[in-house]
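User: Fold this; tokens only.

Assistant: Input:
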Amino acid sequence: MRALSARCAAVALGVAGVMVGDAAVVPGVAVAGPGTGWSIVASPNGARFGDNTLMEVSAGPAASAWAVGYAGGAGTFRTMVQRWNGSRWAVLPSPNVSPLDNVLAGVDTVSADDAWAVGYAARVTPRGAAPHARALIERFNGRRWAAAPAPQVPGSSSLADVLALTPHLAWAVGSYSPRPGVNRTLVERWNGRAWTVTSSPGPRPSSELLGIAGTPQHLWAVGTALTDTLILRH
């Protein structure tokens, strides 16, 4: 359940605030308790050289939080997952399914022992072919992170955000590109056994989803349609 979430170095407010950003520039995350200001908290980098960027954070109880992003050099980014144990942040091992870029953009928690993260993994393409990516889904089972099968969609695909509601219900949103320069909204649903694609509208010629929030009964997804805002309701 999402008690607090922040994306792309934005500020989120809740029982405890968490702000994440490029750890290569500011090697730490900032937290704030009730009645206090922001302060820098030490956070580790996932790579010694290159970028160290955290994209989103999900926090439940004060002693538990996850942050995800990527680390390393462009073209060979590795997934980065960090966990807050109540006193410090630490990098945990996370899968990389491609020899090229592997990026996590969204994370959400069901409980301390159940969490989802989503993003994309670049695929090797023939020389001269357009860049190609496939949606990346990973799950924490209480012991380790593992890659989960993502549904096949036409062309390139990526996921930007995930909403974990129960062990048997989660949603992820993003976009897919049936051909270069054209994006379509992408919504995927976890039913406790597998992820499947759910039909979603999107203005032509191009649109994508970047965030999702809600309850099992009511959902909102937001994104962009070229230069216009895009909001979907379920």
